[in-house]
Write a structure and sequence with these properties.
The protein is α+β, with helices and mostly antiparallel strands. The protein has one domain: Gcn5-related N-acetyltransferase (GNAT) (Aminopeptidase). The protein is built from six helices and nine strands. Helix 4 links the parallel strand 6 and strand 7. It starts with a strand and ends in a 7-residue tail after the last helix. The C terminus is likely disordered. It comes from Demequina zhanjiangensis.
Length: 201
């Protein structure tokens, strides 16, 4: 992984302000949002299959989408990356660290791809590994958490490859959810086991 970060030293878990760096993998480039990403994000939030797989019921207007893209890069309490497919140089989705707790060294992990045409190409797997590595090896976080629908086994497999383990289950609004977590020690064990290689899914 290659990381490009403005400023000396980079961020750490105790830093109040997080700045989204550029992370480079073999097949994806993770970078901050730009105004020009609004069209692709609008397409993604309108994707019915993606909304179904995340049980997303909220709706967004185009004006709301444009406004969000224009402000998210300045957020200092979360990290929002565009997943860009390196070969084509196009927007393939997003990956996020949010809901951080600096005292406990934790954050929530979330990823979404642009639509069905982007599934099964290994982009989500590689983006997940890149962000997990950055979270533990650069930010110094102690634990990442996430929630995934029980009826979304593809996403579960991606998270399991990165080392996430089931930590609980919930039933909410008619849906069964699986809670997962990845600790820094678990990440180190997985990273040593994969030898830096990311499986494609």
């Amino acid at each position: 992984m290659t990381t490009s970060h403005p400023g000396a030293g980079g961020p750490g878990v105790g830093d109040d302000a997080w700045v989204t760096p550029v992370l480079q993998g073999e097949h994806v480039l993770l970078r901050p949002y730009r105004d020009s990403d609004a069209d692709a994000l609008w397409e993604m939030v309108q994707d019915e299959e993606g909304a179904n797989l995340t049980a997303t019921t909220a709706t967004f207007t185009r004006d709301q989408t444009d406004a969000w893209v224009g402000t998210i890069a300045a957020a200092q309490d979360r990290l929002d990356w565009v997943i860009e497919e390196r070969d084509a140089g196009v927007y393939a989705g997003e990956v996020v660290l949010n809901e951080r707790n600096l005292d406990e060294g934790t954050a929530n992990f979330r990823i979404a791809l642009r639509g069905p045409g982007w599934y099964g190409r290994g982009l989500g797997s590689e983006a997940t590994m890149l962000v997990c590595r950055y979270a533990f090896e650069t930010l110094g976080l102690r634990r990442l958490t996430l929630g995934v629908l029980a009826r979304n086994p593809r996403a579960q497999r991606v998270y399991e490859k990165a080392g996430f383990l089931v930590s609980g289950t919930e039933h909410e609004d008619g849906e069964d959810w699986i809670d997962m977590e990845l600790t820094a020690q678990r990440w180190r064990d997985v990273a040593e086991g994969i030898g830096g290689e990311v499986d494609r899914d």
